[in-house]
Specification:
This protein is of the alpha/beta class. The protein has one domain: STAS domain (Transcription Regulator spoIIAA). 38% of the residues lie in helices and 17% in strands. It has helices at residues 19-29, 50-53, 57-65, 92-109, and strands spanning 2-5, 10-13, 38-41, 70-73, 87-89. A five-stranded mixed sheet has the order 1-2-3-4-5. β1 (2-5) and β2 (10-13) form a beta hairpin. The longest helix has 18 residues, at 92-109. It starts with a strand and ends with a helix. The mean pLDDT is 89.
């Protein structure tokens, strides 16, 4: 797993050969990210299915409950087929937009 720390988020790119292998590695490391906004970039690595995306549903819910953003970049997934609890977008630019929108939403909730 390749980690790139940015100003306000961490970009995670899988280096594993399968989503299942990445998921196992990610579960071991996710506790280290509990205070960081995460963007998982699958589009360059895997042809990901909706069932594989759903592996991350509980993690996405945990992040949301703790006021932290969790976004998955994945092309070829119909977002209408994915639960609203998972932020999934086709590009990094859109992932950054989601991070900004989440930050605005959190700010508005604290007013």
């Amino acid at each position: 797993m390749d980690l790139q720390k940015k100003d306000n988020y961490t970009l995670v790119k899988p280096t594993e050969i399968s989503i299942e292998e990445f998921y196992s590695s990610f579960l071991e490391e996710v506790k280290n990210f509990k205070k960081e906004h995460l963007v998982l970039h699958f589009s360059e690595t895997f042809n990901t299915t909706i069932q594989e995306i759903l592996l991350f549903l509980n993690i996405a819910n945990d992040f949301r409950e703790n006021g932290i953003s969790f976004v998955i970049i994945c092309k070829g997934i119909d977002i209408d087929d994915v639960p609203d609890e998972i932020n999934i977008v086709p590009t990094l630019a859109e992932a950054i937009d989601i991070l900004e929108l989440d930050a605005i939403e959190r700010d508005l909730m604290n007013i």
